[in-house]
Specification:
alpha+beta; 194 residues; 8-stranded antiparallel β-sheet; 29% strand; Umud Fragment, subunit A; globular
Length: 194
């Protein structure tokens, strides 16, 4: 009887760890950068199989990823920035930190930012989600267009004035994307799909 219980518990733990490692992992929102879509402390489920199966993120997807080294302290860019231009390349090394942001531009897109709104291929990138506009703080205007490199994705928080994102440390390589956030399960009044 004791052996059976130990085996069942071990299998349950192994199954739970396997699901988190390869299929679905919970994440807690650490900052206000995705408000009003996601609040500090809100919890989401992330589809890790999304990237493992070769799916590429689409504009508008919310993804969890590792930013480039330096993103968490000082917003280092991996390429010289020209005046009026977003960071066009990340540093070469991947950070251990997890960030969550919205994909606003994909490989090959041209991107500029006016008033905190991404201008992708000459058109404002807006969706059926709410944002908190820049309100005149830094990072609102980068009018000089850049082209997003192959296998890179440009990320921005929905709280445009309070998000450290690709504007400052560059687009994220595809290999650094952990998965797509698809469901929020905490707090109870925010339960639903993203």
């Amino acid at each position: 009887m004791v052996v059976e219980v130990v085996v069942i518990v071990a299998l349950a733990i192994g199954l739970a760890l396997g699901i988190q490692a390869f299929l679905v992992k919970p994440y807690q929102i650490p900052s206000e950068s995705m408000e009003p879509t996601l609040d500090i402390g809100q919890r989401v489920l992330v589809n890790r199989a999304f990237t493992r199966l070769g799916d590429d993120p689409d504009p508008g997807d919310i993804v969890v990823f590792h930013p480039p080294t330096g993103a968490e302290q000082g917003n280092r860019c991996g390429a010289p920035k020209k005046p009026g231009e977003v960071c066009s390349l990340p540093t070469d090394e991947e950070s251990d930190t997890n960030f969550i942001k919205r994909v606003v531009a994909v490989p090959g897109d041209t991107l500029a930012i006016k008033g905190g709104i991404p201008i992708v291929n000459g058109k404002p990138f807006e969706g059926d989600w709410d944002i908190i506009p820049c309100r005149g703080v830094g990072g609102c205007d980068f009018p000089k267009p850049v082209t997003i490199p192959k296998d890179h994705y440009f990320m921005m928080g929905d709280n445009r004035g309070a998000s450290d994102d690709s504007r400052y440390w560059g687009p994220v390589p595809r290999d650094w994307i952990i998965g797509q956030a698809f469901f929020t399960y905490w707090p109870p009044d925010r339960i639903g799909t993203l």
